[in-house]
Amino acid sequence: MIEAKIGNSTLNEEQICRYLELAKIHNFDAVVTISNQFAVLATHHPIKVSKKLTRRVDLFHWSWTYLRTQADYQLRVEENIDAEQKYILEEMVRYFDHKSSGVQSFDSMNKEWRNVCLKVKNKERLLKTTDEILNTVSAWHQEQRDLSLMLTRELGAPVNIKLSRAHKSDSEARLKDDSAFLCEKETLICQLHIPDAASVLTIDASLANRTISCSMEVLAPGDKKTTKARVNWLVRQFAKIEPGAIRVGAKWPGGSQITWSYLENLRDDPSTIQTENPNLVPHRFIVQTVLDMAGKFSGQRTFIEGLEKTVAEFYHSVGENLTEWVPPAPKFENARVEDILETAE
């Protein structure tokens, strides 16, 4: 059984519950809903219903944007698609892209967003069980999904949100945990897994600082013995791009704090990132950009616009160029090779 909504129409709990009851009576396997509401997984339904209703009938949800993205992805990667299927998918994408189709991306945070940002600015306490926090985190979850779909379309590769096993199986636990994290850290976090990228892409929206940061982290090359050599290994990966606001963080062994330096400075002098102990060498690098949105951070639409622009620019400049260090294959010692060759002769 399928229920679909378009435009600004949203799913209704009473209607979904009624459909689940009907599906049970008629022995249907599942109820599938489609709307402009986003869900990270098909099993994470945007409408909460009693678990009793889904014991015998599954409940799934897709966004229209997800279906449009899947159609576009299949057109890009599927080699054995026949002419008729190709035509249908192309027409589907063309229709979904038209403004009159009613298909919408996630373009605005919840109505309480500005008030939540104001409370953080005024150092007021946030309560994890209030509607304003739950709605804010729910909106953030939808934006995460929209981001992953946007990157999937642009990159032609399936980009997924990185979730713990517990959060994959329980959307309510994810909402509860992320709400608690927001109240404690005044931050919204998202991690995206991009196929063959050097690391996950971490997005951090700080309500306290009114900033959006994007970062990726890699292991420093173990075959380089000095800080200069390790930093140069990283810097060379970005030789063809403008450094802009890209900065690099170095993680050190022991209890040393992370040190930071801008890519532009490291090109001239790798030692600008050295910790106080000159004998230490970094074992991991963080590559990051930070956007200070100031007053625009609290805007429902301007926040989303700034976020999506920052993520796209960061991945284009950093994610596409960053590579992880791979240890070199072990080699024979020269003397040992000569012994083996002599024995073989």
What does this structure look like?
With 345 residues, the chain is an alpha+beta fold. The protein has a domain at 2-101. It is built from 11 helices and 10 strands. The strands form 2 sheets. The chain has a 7-stranded antiparallel sheet. The chain has a 3-stranded parallel sheet with strand order 1-2-3. A hairpin with a 7-residue loop joins strand 8 (247-251) and strand 9 (259-262).
Task: Furnish the topology, listing elements before pairings.
Blueprint lengths: L1 E3 L8 H13 L4 E6 L22 E6 H14 L5 H15 L15 H9 L9 H25 L4 E2 L3 H5 L1 H15 L1 E7 L7 E6 L4 E9 L7 H9 L11 E5 L7 E4 H6 L15 E9 L7 H20 L14 H11 L1
Parallel strand pairs: 1-2, 2-3
Antiparallel strand pairs: 4-5, 5-6, 6-7, 7-10, 8-9, 8-10
Helix pairs in contact: 2-3, 2-5, 5-7
Going by helix content, strand content and strand pairing, the class is alpha+beta
* Average pLDDT figure: 92
Helicity range: 40-55%
Proportion in β-strands: 15-25%
Widest beta sheet: strand line-up: 4-5-6-7-10-8-9
Number of strands: 10
Number of H- or I-type helical stretches: 11
- H/E element sequence: EHEEHHHHEHHEEEHEEHEHH
How is the biggest beta sheet arranged? 7 strands, antiparallel
Approximate shape: globular
Radius of gyration: 25 Å
End-to-end Cα distance, whole Å, is: 75 Å
| Poorly predicted spans | none
Short descriptors:
7-stranded antiparallel beta sheet; single chain; about 15% strand; globular; 3-stranded parallel beta sheet; alpha+beta; 11 helices; about 350 residues
Characterize this entry briefly.
The protein is an alpha+beta fold and 345 residues long. It has a domain at 2-101. The chain has eleven helices and ten strands.
